[in-house]
Amino acid sequence: MSAATATAAQPEVPRSTTGRQRRSDRSTAENRLGQKLVAPAVVVMLLVTAWPMLQALYLSLFRYRLTTPNDRAFIWFSNYWTILKDPLFWHDTFNTVVIMVVTVAVELVIGFAFAMVMHRVVFARGGIRTAILIPYGIITVVSAFSWQFAFSINNGFVNSWFGWLPWISADTNWFGSHWPAMFAIMVSEIWKTTPFMSLLLLAGLSQVSEDMVEAAKVDGATWWQRLWKVILPNMRAAIMVAVLFRGLDAFRIFDNIYVMTKGAQNTESSSFLTYRQVIEQLQLGLGSALSVLLFLTVLILAWLIVKLFRVDLAQARGEA
Amino acid sequence: MKQPPRSLLRRRPERRRQLLAAAALLAIGAAVLTACSGSGSGKAELVWYTNPDAGGQAKVAENCSTDQYTITTQVLPQDAGQQRIQLARRLAAQDSGIDLMSIDPPYTAELADAGYLAPLPQDFQSTLTQQSFAGATASATWKGQLVAAPFWSNTQVLWYRKSFAQKAGLDMSRPVTWDQIIKAAGDNGGTVAVQANKYEGYVVWINALIAGAGGDIASDTQAGVNASIDVSSPAGEKAAAIVHELASSSAAPSDLSVSNEGTAAATFGSSSGAFMVNWTFIWTNYDEAQPEVKKDLGYAMYPETVQGEQARPPYGGINIGVSTYSNHVDEAMAAAECITKPDNQGVNAELTGNMPASAAGYDYAPLKKIYPAPVMTLFQKSLDAAAPRTVTPYWSDISGSLLSTWHPPSGVSPQTPQSSTTFIEDVLHGRRLL
């Protein structure tokens, strides 16, 4: 029985009008105190988060480049139009979506397997959990360099270790064309962040009631049936959180691409494109427009993922 | 013994904490004030942002420090593009912490055009013009004025394995063409090592190929974004044909599309090493690691793009700029004069292998012990013929656009020059993203 049904099955306690009024007064007062307590944090948040976003929105309406300060001009939404009709923008968005979908899908499967191992393991539990979590503790840039060296045609081990595969030889240049380079980038990303996925799934897994699993077992359900009919449906909120976090994280991918290909072989992501406009080209106007578009895309993605999983977030937070 | 009241017991550690915090604040304040006031002796401290090297610029900074000022160095990132970004962003923010800076030649015009470089006095300009190689002066000139002081100049030559050239029957005492070396390497199991990763080094190669066929990447650059883009020309087509020829030949190293100066040197040092175009530092590159390669190391003028037409080797180097926003412009200008004196160019060359920007710098005695006379002669001959990259404030856009359309080398076709011209024009006018 799920937590939701358990709550619904409880008999409703009759409440007097005065009691409701009293609770309401108290909750209003608590609410007010809560607002006062969080007010400083809200101000700080607005300063550090909203202000740069508003500044980006404002800058995006200008033709503005740092090294031609006299050429600055207000051009309304022209930067957005330039971006949206540029094939490079759509190509890089496509790359980003491919990286996001593939890495999150693979990480979900491997991460779940790791979560099961961490959940069920009875011997050397600490050691196994540490081993699984180590990649996540490594700085992304460091892991990207490691994988770049691993796939390097000059001194990498991938070509020699996997030379027995028909499509890999000592001369395989992984960073010499689009899809092999994308593959190397995705391998690096998956290796680095699968532990994070498995941590989130482990939290969900530990919340699934053992009684329900036992009951299903007694009813004669096979391992697969218990997984599909009992464990996974009860982890829906945890899976959604894992997919949401990792999906949005993967959509912002930058470090791996910067280190491994510098965007060569058309492996750029949306955030890499934004970086190049703002930092390399010093185009504050175009770059700001790109960052606003990136922000909006992330918002839409988050909304889509929440809708897709049909999870009531209030319920997931344990609220009534 | 009488115990103090509980309230006092509670208050004492609190007061101690407050006193400690006040003392810490005072200490931090004093440290900040000391840092702001420089050395505290009234002697100015000039900060010189240098590109990473083997200590040459730090030694020159030490040599040029005087009783009036001390020159200290801060190291910029390794990559030329990243050096430009850091300098441009700091200068745009009017950072007075930069007094002197080492600037890669193609970005000199951009910083000057934005007004970030203090104008050089006319007599200093005259001295520099007289002492520097023509290519060095051209690379530091914007709108008819020398805007930065050439410090060191570098050029690429053709390095080859003497044994391989002999086996292939190539007469290296005469000028050779790209077609000849690609064919000789391909026919005899050798490689031609170049720089073709998606970075500035690849544009250096493209520029040299186009210039070698008598063309230019761009002209009329004072028109800013309306400059004439000349990549789509017979010279551009010949350059594209050579890139394609190498990329589709067995002489292409397997890491061609990700090769840089370092990997090219490694390819040349491998068993398939035959030819390589690379900077002058190669002369000492194999001294300790691969003495057998050093013994077999031959050198010649950069290959010709078109047979019979003088090759135009790449030009690189460093110009010294003085920041407009420095609090010590006069002292920094005096320091720049000292830094770019031929003797100091020689000191830098001795320590780093980055050759002087003036013929007089080559007279520095210790250099003659490291480089045999024919090598020195070749470097200077090559510098005289060198073709700097187009001097324009929009070089980073042009360079980035070339990389977008010419990379990877295997994708270069006869249509590439035309498509890159259109793309560069669109990027310059803000019609396309780069």
From TrEMBL, chain A:
Q: Which InterPro entries match?
A: MetI-like, MetI-like_sf
Q: Where is this region: Disordered?
A: 1-30
Q: What is this protein called?
A: Multiple sugar transport system permease protein
Q: Which organism is it from?
A: Nocardioides panaciterrulae
- Xref: PANTHER family: BLR7065 PROTEIN, INTEGRAL MEMBRANE SUGAR TRANSPORT PROTEIN
Primary location recorded for the protein, binned into one broad class: membrane
What's in the keyword line of the UniProt record? Cell membrane, Membrane, Sugar transport, Transmembrane, Transmembrane helix, Transport
Q: Which CDD domains match?
A: TM_PBP2
**Similarity annotation:** Belongs to the binding-protein-dependent transport system permease family.
Residue ranges annotated as transmembrane are 37-61, 96-118, 130-153, 284-306
The membrane topology term of the UniProt record is: Multi-pass membrane protein
Q: Which GO terms describe its cellular component?
A: plasma membrane
- Subcellular location per the Swiss-Prot or TrEMBL entry: Cell membrane
Q: Name one Pfam family in it.
A: BPD_transp_1
The Gene Ontology biological process terms listed for this entry are: transmembrane transport
Q: Which residues form the ABC transmembrane type-1 domain?
A: 93-305
Automatic annotation (TrEMBL), chain B:
Provide the Gene Ontology terms for cellular component.
ATP-binding cassette (ABC) transporter complex, substrate-binding subunit-containing
Q: Which GO terms describe its biological process?
A: maltodextrin transmembrane transport; maltose transport
Its domain of life? Bacteria
What keywords does the record list, in alphabetical order? Answer: Signal, Sugar transport, Transport
A Pfam family per the record: SBP_bac_1
GO molecular function terms noted in the UniProt entry: maltose binding
Q: Which Gene3D superfamilies match?
A: Periplasmic binding protein-like II
- Name the PANTHER family on file: MALTOSE-BINDING PERIPLASMIC PROTEIN (PTHR30061), MALTOSE_MALTODEXTRIN-BINDING PERIPLASMIC PROTEIN (PTHR30061:SF50)
Into which family does the record put it?
A: Belongs to the bacterial solute-binding protein 1 family.
Q: What is this protein called?
A: Multiple sugar transport system substrate-binding protein
